[in-house]
Amino acid sequence: VFSTSSVLDYREGQLSPEQWQRTYGRCSGNEVYHIRLCDSKFFGEYDGKSFTYASFHAHKKYGVCLIGVKREDNKSILLNPGPRHIMAAPDTCYYINITKEENSAFIFKQEEKDNKGLPVAGLYDAPSRLPVHSIIASMGEERRGGRDSLGKGRR
After folding, report:
1. In terms of residue numbers, what domain contains 73?
2. Which residues form the Calcium-activated potassium channel BK alpha subunit domain (predicted)?
C-alpha cells in the first residue's frame, strides 16, 4: 500500500490564508537523514568541534538542522548532546533537511564558489527581523530557490 503522506513537498499549503499553514506546508517535505561525519560535506569541517558549534554553523551555512549524533562504538543515538560532546570523524550525524546530502545541488554550488575564490555567504548572514520560529521553519529555502530570510527572491 502506497502512502500519499510521504509525498508532501514544500509547496503544500502555500495558498492558504493562514500563516501557520503556509509555514507548515513549506517545511512538510523535510525528513531526518544520517551520514558519517568524515563522509559529509555538511558536517565534515566540524571534526573536533562541539556538537552545538557544528549544529549552529551547519544551519547557518547550509540550512540543515543537526539534531543528533551516534558514536561508532555506541548503539544509542544522542539527541542534542550539548556543547560537551566533541564531534569525531567516525560519528554518524542525524539531521533534518529537505533532501539527503548526496542529492543536494546546493553543496555543489557552494563548492563552485569556493573553487573560484568567491566569498561564500551563509544563509542567514544578513540581520533579520523575523521571529526565530520563522527562521528555523525556513531552513532549506536556499536549496529550493525560495525566498531568503528577509523575504527577497533568490538571484
Report:
1. 31-110+120-144
2. 12-69
Give domain status of residue 151, yes or no. Answer: no
pLDDT in tens, 95-112: 998 877 776 665 555 555
**Run of H or E including 110:** helix 105-115
Q: Which residue has better confidence, 135 or 61?
A: 61
Cell readout for 60 is 547557518
pTM of the model: 0.58
Residue 65 lies in a domain: yes
Asked whether residue 4 is assigned to any structural domain, the reply reads no
DSSP bridge pairs for 92? 36, 70
In a domain, 25, yes or no: no
Cβ atoms 71, 113 nearer than 8 A: no
Mean pLDDT for 20-26 is 76
Count of structural domains, the chain = 1
- CB-count exposure of residue 45 (10 Å: 0-12, 13-18, 19+): middle
CATH classification of the domain holding 70: 3.30.70.1450
| DSSP string computed for 20-52 | HHHHHHHHTT-EEEEEEGGG-TTTGGGTTSBHH
Reported as a pLDDT band with limits 50, 70 and 90, residue 127 is: very low
The yes-or-no verdict on residue 77 having pLDDT over 50 is yes
